[in-house]
Write a structure and sequence with these properties.
about 260 residues, 7-stranded mixed beta sheet, about 30% helix
């Protein structure tokens, strides 16, 4: 029984501030510890549930956020930057399921901790085939291309609501109740880890009832930038890549990975 875990930072218990999320910032080392311990709780629960292979990806920023010396020995870990074409190294159709741990809501979500989509400095919003989508939906689609369903999502309560709206009948676990971009009612990390372990075991049992997330092509992705110079820097052929106005670009492709690679 094989599981793939993608771990972001914004949705980890106790994390909500910019100074926790950037290398060299005052609270970053504490946040690394919180991330690593929460990932370890997920790994330990998967082992207890009978997983025979676990891959955990550091999916935040540079991909160098885990504390290697403290990582649970039962999993293998993907660290470092990855391109969209290989966003989840080692993934194939032999995995029973995938978990999105410590995720956040899409950009523009009201009272969500650190809401953004892929970057908080690059663009305002993304629509795929006419529908707003965030990192939960995008990553679930990539897993779905390999026939692997996402069966567990954790993060703040707004993240959990988005996951249920996007993916349907899955297990969610809220590490905190968001009250603003940099504020939340948190659960103590020790309690969150214990409760998350229970959610993992529930998700393992539920995975058989989850379907891989899919969206038929052709695909059209509309990206709205924060500033006109960001749109200026893109290349357009007016067929597969087209600028619509000062802040908006549209990308088109028959292949989802090709589309994401061109846009991101």
């Amino acid at each position: 029984m094989k599981f793939y875990v993608s771990a972001d930072m914004e949705g980890i218990s106790g994390i909500m501030l910019p100074d926790q999320l950037l290398r060299g910032a005052p609270l970053y080392e504490e946040a690394r510890h919180l991330l690593t311990m929460e990932v370890n709780a997920v790994t330990e629960a998967l082992v207890e549930a009978g997983a025979t292979q676990i891959i955990v990806k550091d999916a935040h920023g540079s991909g160098f956020n885990f504390i290697p010396e403290l990582l649970h020995p039962a999993a293998d870990y993907v660290m470092g930057a990855t391109r969209v074409e290989q966003r989840f190294p080692g993934l194939d159709s032999s995995f029973e399921g995938a978990f999105l741990i410590g995720y956040h809501a899409m950009n523009g979500t009201r009272e969500a901790v650190r809401d953004h989509t892929m970057t908080s400095q690059g663009w305002q919003s993304i629509q795929l085939n006419g529908r707003m989508i965030g990192e939960i939906g995008l990553d679930a689609l990539i897993f779905g291309l390999c026939g692997v369903p996402v069966s567990l999502v954790s993060g703040d309560d707004k993240t959990c609501s988005e996951a249920e709206d996007e993916l349907g009948d899955i297990v969610v676990y809220a590490t905190k109740t968001a009250t603003g971009r940099h504020s939340a009612i948190i659960k103590p990390p020790l309690r969150s880890r214990l409760e998350l372990k229970d959610a993992v075991k529930q998700a393992v049992q539920h995975t058989a009832f989850c379907k891989p997330y899919s969206l038929p092509g052709p695909y059209e992705l509309m990206m709205r930038f924060l500033h006109t110079e960001q749109a200026d820097a893109r290349r357009y052929d007016n067929v597969n890549a087209q600028r619509m106005d000062g802040l908006t670009a549209v990308y088109r492709s028959e292949n989802l990975i090709d589309l994401l690679a061109a846009a991101f």
